[in-house]
C-alpha cells in the first residue's frame, strides 16, 4: 500500500448532462479538496473520458495559476474527430 488517500468523484455524464456539467462537477470536487489539501500534494487521474476531464481540469487550474503535483491519464479520450482516421 502506498499510504495515499484517494477521492473518487462522481460526475454528471453526457448525453444526459451536456458540456460543461462534468467539468463543473470535477472543478467543484477539486475546490472542496483544496480546503484540506494543498494543490502541490494533489495528483489527478482519469481514464478514457475521465482522462479528457482531467485535462480540462488541468487547463482550468493552470489558467488561475494552480499546478497540482501531477496527473495520470489512462487511454484518455483526446481526439474527438475520429472520422479522419476512418478508411475512405
In spatial order, strands of the major sheet run 1-2
Mean pLDDT: 91
- Structural class label: alpha+beta
Shape: globular
Q: Report the strand count.
A: 2
Radius of gyration: 15 Å
The unreliable regions are none
Q: Quick one: biggest sheet?
A: 2 strands, parallel
Helix fraction by DSSP (H/I, runs of at least 4): 25-40%
Order of helices and strands: HEHE
Quaternary structure annotation: single chain
Strand residues, percent = 5-15%
* Alpha-carbon distance between the two ends: 49 Å
Tally of individual helices? 2
Characterise this structure.
The chain has helices at residues 21-33, 49-63, and strands at 43-47, 70-74. It has a two-stranded parallel sheet. The protein contains two helices and two strands; from the N terminus they run αβαβ. The model has no long low-confidence stretch (mean pLDDT 91). Helix 1 packs across helix 2. The radius of gyration is 15 Å and the shape is globular. With 88 residues, it is α+β, with helices and mostly antiparallel strands.
Summarize the structure.
The chain is α+β, with helices and mostly antiparallel strands and 88 residues long. 32% of the residues lie in helices and 11% in strands.
Q: What labels describe this entry?
A:
single chain; 88 residues; alpha+beta; two-stranded parallel ribbon; 2 helices; 2 strands; 32% helix; 11% strand; globular
Amino acid at each position: 500500500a502506498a499510504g495515499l488517500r484517494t477521492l473518487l468523484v462522481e460526475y454528471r455524464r453526457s448525453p444526459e448532462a451536456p458540456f460543461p456539467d462534468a467539468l463543473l462537477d470535477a472543478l467543484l470536487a477539486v475546490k472542496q479538496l483544496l480546503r484540506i489539501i494543498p494543490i502541490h500534494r494533489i495528483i489527478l487521474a482519469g481514464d478514457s473520458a475521465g482522462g479528457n476531464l482531467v485535462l480540462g481540469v488541468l487547463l482550468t487550474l493552470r489558467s488561475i495559476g494552480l499546478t497540482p503535483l501531477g496527473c495520470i491519464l489512462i487511454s484518455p479520450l483526446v481526439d474527438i474527430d475520429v472520422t479522419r482516421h476512418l478508411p475512405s
